[in-house]
Design goal:
About 20% of the residues lie in helices and about 35% in strands. The protein has 3 helices and 8 strands. Strands 1, 2, 3, 4, 5, 6, 7 and 8 form an 8-stranded antiparallel β-sheet that branches. Strand 1 and strand 2 form a beta hairpin. The radius of gyration is 22 Å and the shape is globular. About 15% of the residues are buried.
C-alpha cells in the first residue's frame, strides 16, 4: 500500500496515545486543582497604584504580562497608559467599572464595562481613564505584544 499510513500503524498509534493519556490522567488525579481564590491572591507580592489600587502580577515573560488588579470603591482613575508597546486586554471580574480613552478625565465619555466583558487598549490608543462603582472592581489584565492580538481585533 502506498500513499498513506498503514492501517495497523494507525491502530498502534491510537493505542499508544491512549496509554500516554491514561498515564497522564493518573498523575493528574493525584494533584489538586490550584484555585486562585481571594485568600491565595492576598499572599502574592503586590504593588500599590497612585490611586489606591493593588496590582498582583500572576505571570509574564517574553513581552507578556498577566496581573490581577483590585481598584477601590468610588475611585476616579486619572488618565494613564498601559505598558508601552503592548496591547492590554482587561476583563472585569466583579464590580462596577467605567472607562474611556483620552488624556483628560471626562465623566461624560465613560462607558460601563459589565462583569465578564473584556475591553482592549491597543498599542496606539491614547491614555485612558476610569471610574469604579460603590463596591470597587476586580480586573484581570493581560498585556501582550501587538502581534499577539488576533488580526480581527488588531485592525478595529
Amino acid at each position: 500500500m502506498t500513499g498513506g499510513p498503514h492501517p495497523g500503524g494507525i491502530v498502534a498509534t491510537l493505542f499508544a496515545v491512549a496509554l500516554v493519556a491514561a498515564a497522564g490522567g493518573a498523575a493528574a488525579e493525584e494533584r489538586t486543582l490550584l484555585r486562585l481564590d481571594a485568600a491565595l491572591l492576598e499572599t502574592l507580592a503586590s504593588q500599590r497604584t497612585a490611586w489606591g489600587g493593588t496590582i498582583r502580577p500572576l505571570g509574564g515573560s517574553g513581552g507578556y504580562t498577566i496581573a490581577r488588579v483590585s481598584l477601590p470603591a468610588a475611585a476616579d482613575i486619572p488618565p494613564h497608559p498601559h505598558p508601552a508597546g503592548k496591547a492590554a486586554l482587561v476583563t472585569v471580574l466583579r464590580g462596577s467599572f467605567e472607562v474611556a480613552l483620552g488624556g483628560q478625565f471626562d465623566p461624560a465619555r465613560l462607558v460601563r464595562i459589565p462583569p465578564g466583558e473584556t475591553v482592549m487598549f491597543r498599542v496606539d490608543d491614547p491614555h485612558h481613564f476610569a471610574r469604579t462603582g460603590p463596591e470597587g472592581v476586580e480586573l484581570l489584565l493581560v498585556a501582550v505584544p501587538p502581534d499577539a492580538v488576533v488580526p480581527e481585533l488588531a485592525t478595529r
